[in-house]
Amino acid sequence: MRIIPAIDIIEGKCVRLSKGDYDTKKIYNEHPLEMAKEFEAHGIEYLHLVDLDGAKSKHIVNHRVLEQIASKTRLKIDFGGGLKTDQDLRIAFESGADQITGGSIAVKDKNTFSAWIREYGSDKIILGADALDEKVAVSGWQEESTEDLVPFIQKYQKKGIEYIICTDISKDGMLQGPSFDLYKKILKETAVNATTGGPGGVLDTLVPGVKLIASGGISAFDELPRLAEIGCEGTIIGKAIYENHISLKQLENYILST
Fold first, then answer.
1. Which pLDDT score is estimated for 206?
2. Active site residue 222
3. Which end of the chain is more exposed for a tag (fewer CB within 10 A), N or C?
4. pTM confidence score
């Protein structure tokens, strides 16, 4: 399971919110590049970078931060927040993003998001399926849509999407543990039948259908093996790192042992 620290950006600074509420903003570092370099120094290879100004403004804003981190570290960055147009997407990739995450646009402009999957490929486009009470939320979690979470994921699975970042908003930033049951449900309902040969003839088995990245609520190191055990492909860790609930040394050791 990949370990993916999160850096959320407001006005160029590294912040964290609780349940997506901008009024709960807490600044952890004035210089996101410093945090990114610290992650890299502990053997971390991936970064989840969120442009919260972009999410609110509905267009990319903090691409300079992306460019700085991408040019001065070797981290593989997935970038999201405010990506609404083809131009936003071009700016993100030209600024150094390895992958982009689309959330609101996947709900509000399905044609454009589907076109991105076709044009850039499923290894470059991540579906941001964030939800409250299993309803998909959009616009930096300021709005709840009418989309039910699992059917929403299944629709895009049929269009070729592979990577899913799912945040249970009620858990985000609360340090109360992730939504294990929700992730089990998603993995079960997106699994696909595979026909394999075996002793005694043909056998139908279920294989993972999506690469699910857990996000929100991570509060302790021992939750990570549990997420790996249920089949999560990666996990995004934010406040647990910044509030010293999980140390970078623990993450370094975990990466080395897997």
1. 52
2. no
3. C
4. 0.90
